[in-house]
Amino acid sequence: MDLAERYPSLRFAWPRPGVLEISFQGEKLNAMDPPLHRALSQVWRDLEALPHLRAVLLRGEGGVFSAGGSFALIEEMRASRKALMRVLEEARDLVLGPLNFPRPVVAAVEKVAVGAGLALALSADIAVVGKKARLLDGHLRLGVAAGDHAVLLWPLLVGLAKAKYHLFLHEPLTGEEAERLGLVALAVEDEAVYGRALEVAEHLAKGPREALSHTKRALNHWLRTFLPHFELSLALEFLGFSGEELEEGLRALKEKREPQFP
């Protein structure tokens, strides 16, 4: 299988034996346009067919992880119900793909991880984050419910009180703060993110393949227990893409101001 041909939005490399590095480049700050969003949600099924793959390393190109879904992706959803339903399925697979993938997944999170970008980062088994990186869910600022990963992952990782605080107030976190709260596994100096993430991926690739896979599967049953909450939050989020609050949220983002919701 030619992954590069099948997924032209992604770059594939083998920096260490058994470690497949997947890098991606989107719009400004690696915001996910429709082809990139689709690729990052679908690639996991094809990766299972690679016999020598022992660990995956995710990174954004240009030293930036991802600012989330692009305006082009949102406009496509608003213009077509068919596109809306397709992107809903992609948003589900963007989270469940890494969670269900049988090999360990490491994310090298540099500069920013917002919205769908943060969903991808936190769905990895181990997120290595720059101490000054900016992490933000951002859905409520846009005027839609906090779906994607937030209702599934945040309460388990940081507790319900902190989850409500940061999701309701769209309060950003630095990588250092995220590590302290338990949202991410490891925060390092910004210039050391990729190197440390590669070290972690290489260490995992040398580990016992079957035992790691079984341990990941068992641990992630904690998350599977809450999949009904995830499905509800995802449905409510996408319901909001036809709402009036989204209109103001989009205008505010484009005009770089705080939204004034009716």
Task: Describe this protein's structure.
The structure is a single chain. With 262 residues, this protein is of the alpha/beta class. 52% of the residues lie in helices and 15% in strands. It has helices spanning 3-6, 34-47, 71-79, 81-100, 116-123, 139-142, 150-158, 160-168, 175-181, 193-205, 209-219, 221-224, 227-239, 244-255; strands spanning 10-16, 19-24, 55-60, 105-109, 112-114, 126-130, 134-136, 173-174, 186-188. It has a 6-stranded mixed beta sheet, sandwiched between helices. The longest helix is centred in the middle third of the chain and has 20 residues, at 81-100. The protein is globular, with a radius of gyration of 17 Å.
Descriptive tags:
Enoyl-CoA_hydra_C, alpha/beta, three-stranded mixed β-sheet, 262 residues, globular, 9 strands, Enoyl-CoA hydratase, 14 helices, six-stranded mixed β-sheet, ClpP/crotonase-like_dom_sf, 52% helix, Enoyl-CoA_hydra/iso
List the helices and strands and how they pair.
Layout: H1 3-6, E1 10-16, E2 19-24, H2 34-47, E3 55-60, H3 71-79, H4 81-100, E4 105-109, E5 112-114, H5 116-123, E6 126-130, E7 134-136, H6 139-142, H7 150-158, H8 160-168, E8 173-174, H9 175-181, E9 186-188, H10 193-205, H11 209-219, H12 221-224, H13 227-239, H14 244-255
Parallel strand pairs: 2-3, 3-4, 4-6, 5-7, 6-9
Antiparallel strand pairs: 1-2, 7-8
Helix pairs in contact: 2-4, 3-4, 4-5, 4-13, 7-8
Question: Quick gist of this model?
Answer:
InterPro entries: ClpP/crotonase-like_dom_sf (IPR029045), Enoyl-CoA_hydra/iso (IPR001753), Enoyl-CoA_hydra_C (IPR014748). This protein is α/β, with parallel strands linked by helices and 262 residues long.
